[in-house]
Amino acid sequence: MRILIVEDDTGIAGGLEATLRSVGYAVDVCGTLADAAAALRVEAFDLVLLDLGLPDGDGIDWLRRLRQEGRTLPVIIMTARDALPDRVAGLDQGADDYLVKPFAPEELLARMRVALRRSEGRASPLLHHGDLEVDPAAHTVRKAGTLVPLRAKEFALLLALLRASGQVLSRQRLEEALYGFDDALESNALEVHIHHLRRKLGSELLQTVRGVGYFVPRPETGQAGAGATHSGPP
Ligand code: CA
After folding, report:
1. CA of 101 to the centre of ligand 1 (A)
2. What confidence tens digit (pLDDT) does each residue in 18-52 have?
3. CB neighbours (10 Å) of residue 175?
4. Which of 10, 51, 232, 233 has the highest Cβ tally under 10 A?
């Protein structure tokens, strides 16, 4: 999950960035609306955290344009403007949520999970895949009921693949989901994380498409009688 923070207060931005990184998000910070627009043009982000008072304009106007351009990614406004008309305007101009500063990091993280869940069309906070149960809030993975400890990047990688289950994600897309612009990235880092995930969760879960990327097969739904023949011997 890659998050764009649009915030000109470097103290707040730095604190937020550290909080989000500590739970496994990839994070980029932009201090102006122009930089944020440029970042959105070149990289795929999953969610934007948007301050409103920015040096080159008002975040609300920028958000309105974003929605007019048809961009649907979740946007959470975070601002000191706590007046009712401001909050209503923020939501009506296309924000998914509105947080008044100062706020507790736990609440921001919870609201981010809600916004991400909605953007994926999920109501349940848990993800299920075969005998796996993933809890994005608690950062836990259970396989057949047994807790499997994962590192933060492994967890983020698993989530990205599960959320796109059935779809091949390119190396580049996965690296974008795991690392920000400024992260030092070892050329084989992705392979190392995949290797660890396979060792912990079983080699059949993560499939390689050589030269392209990786995917998690769609889980057996149990309702497909015809599909079941594929898992039997040829
Ligand atoms: Ca500001």
Report:
1. 11
2. 999 988 899 999 999 999 999 999 888 999 999 99
3. 18
4. 51
